[in-house]
Amino acid sequence: MPQGRRKTPFSGKAKKEQLKLKKHRQGFTKPLLLESSGDENLSNTSKLNYQSKKNPKTKVNRYALIFHKETEEEIRQRKEIARQSLVPVAEEELEINGCDYYPKNLDFPKRPEWSYDLTKEQLDAKENKYFAEYLNAVEQNFSSQDIGVFELNLETWRQLWRVIEISDILLYIVDIRFSALMFPPSLYNYVTNDLKKEFILVLNKIDLAPASLVVAWKSYFQEKFPNIHIVMFTTLPGYNLIGNCSDKAGLQVRRRRGKIRMAAEGAQSLLEVCKSIVRDEVDLSSWENKIQEEMNLEFDENEKVEVGEVIEQKIVDTGSFQHEKYKNGILTIGCVGQPNVGKSSLMNAIKGKKVVSVSKTPGHTKHFQTIFLTPNVRLCDCPGLVFPSKVPKTLQVLMGNYPIAQLREPYTAVKYIAERLDLPKLLRIEHPDNDDSWSAMDICDGWAKKRGYLTAKAARLDSYRAANSLLRMALDGKICLCLRPPKYSSRIDFWSAHLEVQKVLWIQAKSEKEAKSEKEAKSEKEANFEHSDGSDSDDLFELEAGDQKATASKNESSDDEDEENEDADEESDEGIDSMTNKFAAIQE
């Protein structure tokens, strides 16, 4: 029997690299976590990875998120900070002015002028040249330490350009907890002043914030941006939830009741704004009738969810798109926002059933999709975009801009929360060293000890996994930290008595009595917390995003709920590209 060629043994690591290269040649590899020897030059692997993006015949990483990757020295310094003792900050430290994080000379990339006379290749070359010049200009005016991470993929920006072009109204969605940090004034000025289009700001997830704070943020935006229309919204009003909205320690626990149902109050608010904009140019009666039917409809837990028709739009740049307002009597609303603000969930809540896939992982929506809400109303869902800003990366992580699974150092984000919330009390954890002084690392170790997170080899406390768990709880709103507008603390009585509070409670589907009882119950929990014997500690085992088994018997999950509650330890790395120099993506 002939002897075959003897194979040379190699390690498991070498085998993984071999499989990566094989998949890369086949054209469906996941984005690589790129290592580079210096800040200015890309490695051979990263150059190959970027060149594959430029090939129009290859769709490798075409819509991948591309962010900056910290150096080893930056990681080491941040870990040292996380080991320092926590110093609680004053209430006023939560008050921010969003305009401070968006300087006027830090703009977002806009589509360059073009015409039907240009060929596809000429247009593509023109846009690539413009984007390269844009990044070079940002690099010259700002250092990488001054600005936060922002989207470096031209293909993703092209999605935004297309949505803005075809939309009659731009719907910009923000998370109420970090609303000012998520709102780029440059986009507002571009849409309202340059394009002369209407701009609606949606304050989403208002069920996570007190009604007085929601009203204060609405007043803040109305004062700063006079031409803006503001809608308050939540995809989980009270009638869509099971049980109370907080556990015995004061952590937010939101469990959706059965299948997806229309958020009728929020949809009604959006309809009223759209009617004031379009007037009699578009017939919105079918949308209005649909909302009224939902408001009068008795909820049926066995109601089937039918998936609506979704039209996936692909960008084909064969010339300029001349926008015709209310073309064919159809109102087109573009939904734009940063990752994880709830754009896709909002579309599902307005429609009343699952029509767009959702996920907690940033970058899940790869290209924009359109659905017809009614025959005369069309919604366009744009992928989440991280706009250039001076927002620190720590806050960007808490906002959901950066995938938690990709964090190399999550402890400083935990430190930011712990300096503003009493995490040891909320989590009911004991100090791992029986000390009185807490640090971010101590909190992570205490949570790892409570949850039984141990490393595989040495069976030490898995601080990294615990930190990721805490950040996912913060992202989901279970650990709820809300930033506030300037001078909010000194005027809290004024905002609590504001007339708009009743409207917020109506959208949240809460009565004033329920809101008051929740507030009193929370205060009582905080007052009696130190006298607790710890018998309620098992309740926290239902709080982690990946813990599906603990809540399976309590929640009748819908078809898309598995996507909304992804396993924390198996979160996909797909769609992420990192590099040492954030401006090197477009340089040879």
Automatic annotation (TrEMBL):
InterPro entries, alphabetized: G_CP_dom (IPR030378), GNL1-like (IPR043358), GTP-bd (IPR006073), P-loop_NTPase (IPR027417)
Keyword Mitochondrion among UniProt keywords: no
Record field: compositional bias (Basic and acidic residues): 515-534
Keyword terms, alphabetized: GTP-binding, Nucleotide-binding, Phosphoprotein
Stretches assigned to the CP-type G domain: 157-388
Biased composition (Polar residues): 39-53
Keyword Phosphoprotein: yes
CDD domains, per database record: HSR1_MMR1
Example of a GO MF term: GTP binding
Record's compositionally biased regions (Acidic residues): 535-545, 558-576
Region annotation (Disordered) ranges: 1-54, 515-588
PANTHER family named among the record's database cross-references: GUANINE NUCLEOTIDE-BINDING PROTEIN-LIKE 1, LARGE SUBUNIT GTPASE 1 HOMOLOG-RELATED
Primary role: Possible regulatory or functional link with the histocompatibility cluster.
Official protein name in the record: Guanine nucleotide-binding protein-like 1
Biological source species: Cryptolaemus montrouzieri
